[in-house]
Amino acid sequence: MSRAHVHNERPQRVAELGELGLELRVNPADEELLRRRWSQVVPAGIGADRIELQQDERVQSGGAVIETTHGQVDAQLESKLAQLGNALWTFVMDVSAAQDRDGADA
């Protein structure tokens, strides 16, 4: 997919999200700040009234969990670090397996 295609498709995707509505769950300590800056947080093309901001003590401060009818995005730092760790582990295992194969061929 070309960069131009992605760029041109983004407004359509944002508009589709705006039609669906979504729930944004954040740590209670972050809710007040988000409400004060709501107009800066909500992307253009999505009606702010379509996003339900919910406090959730299970969400780490600074993170968020976004839920739509199509699924969930966990945007917490701990979750992202776990994904990074899994990706690095997979890379190391792939490199190790390739080296083992190369060594066996020699």
In brief, what are we looking at here?
The protein is of the alpha+beta class and 106 residues long. The protein is 57% helix and 17% strand.
Structural class estimated from helices and strands: alpha+beta
Walk across the major sheet and give the strand order.
2-1-3-4
C-alpha-based Rg, rounded = 20 Å
Give a count of the beta strands, DSSP E runs of length 2 or more: 4
Q: Which outline best applies?
A: elongated
The succession of helices and strands, N to C, reads: HEHHEEEH
What's the end-to-end separation, in Å?
40 Å
How would a crystallographer describe the biggest sheet?
4 strands, mixed
User: Could you list the spans in which at least 5 consecutive residues all have pLDDT below 50?
Assistant: 1-15
Number of helices: 4
* Average pLDDT, all residues: 77
Quaternary organization? single chain
Helix share bin: 55-70%
How many structural domains in the coordinates?
A: 2
Strand proportion, as a percent range, falls in 15-25%
